[in-house]
């Protein structure tokens, strides 16, 4: 059977529904920190900034300097612990998980999430689309 490359939108709805339901579950934060992914179109690279955080008794990420919960809007510019760059999701993923330095990831679910986001970011970079991190 030959594949035509045409996606039937009706067949995508059950998959969207599964993803939407899974996105509402509780997720424990990674005590090793969090990552912000951006695209550098001029260098054709994925840029991944790793930021540290502590987690309070309510499970919220808190600023290591102030002890206050971290906001989603970026009220204060923070400096990343490290910046990873690569042309592909695989290249960045290998930089994150292999090598002599300790891994900046301590939770498997966080690593899987980051892998999905890197794949999405690479697709957007290659196809000149806007990338928004989930």
Describe the overall structure.
A three-stranded antiparallel sheet has the order 1-2-5, with helices on one face. A two-stranded antiparallel ribbon has the order 3-4. The chain has helices at residues 9-22, 89-97, 108-126; strands at 34-40, 45-51, 54-55, 61-62, 82-86. The mean pLDDT is 86. The chain contains three helices and five strands. Helix 2 (89-97) runs antiparallel to helix 3. A hairpin with a 4-residue loop joins strand 1 (34-40) and strand 2 (45-51). With 134 residues, it is α+β, with helices and mostly antiparallel strands. The chain has one domain. The N and C termini lie far apart (36 Å).
Ends distance? 36 Å
Q: What is the share of helical residues?
A: 25-40%
Largest sheet: 3 strands, antiparallel
SSE pattern, N- to C-terminal: HEEEEEHH
Average per-residue pLDDT, rounded, comes to: 86
The unreliable regions are none
Estimated radius of gyration: 17 Å
For the record, the count of structural domains works out to: 1
Q: Kindly state the number of beta strands.
A: 5
Widest sheet: strand ordering: 1-2-5
The amount of beta strand, in percent, is 15-25%
* Number of helical elements: 3
């Amino acid at each position: 059977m030959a594949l035509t490359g045409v996606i039937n939108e009706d067949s995508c709805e059950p998959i969207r529904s599964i993803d939407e339901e899974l996105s509402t579950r509780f997720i424990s934060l990674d005590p090793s920190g969090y990552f912000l992914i951006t695209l550098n179109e001029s260098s054709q690279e994925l840029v991944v900034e790793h930021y540290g955080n502590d987690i309070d008794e309510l499970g919220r990420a808190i600023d290591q300097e102030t002890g206050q919960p971290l906001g989603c809007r970026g009220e204060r510019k923070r400096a990343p612990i490290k910046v990873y760059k690569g042309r592909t999701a695989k290249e960045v993923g290998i930089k994150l998980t292999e090598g002599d330095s300790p891994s900046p990831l301590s939770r498997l679910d966080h690593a899987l999430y980051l892998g999905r986001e890197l794949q999405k970011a690479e697709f957007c970079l290659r196809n000149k689309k806007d990338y928004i991190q989930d």
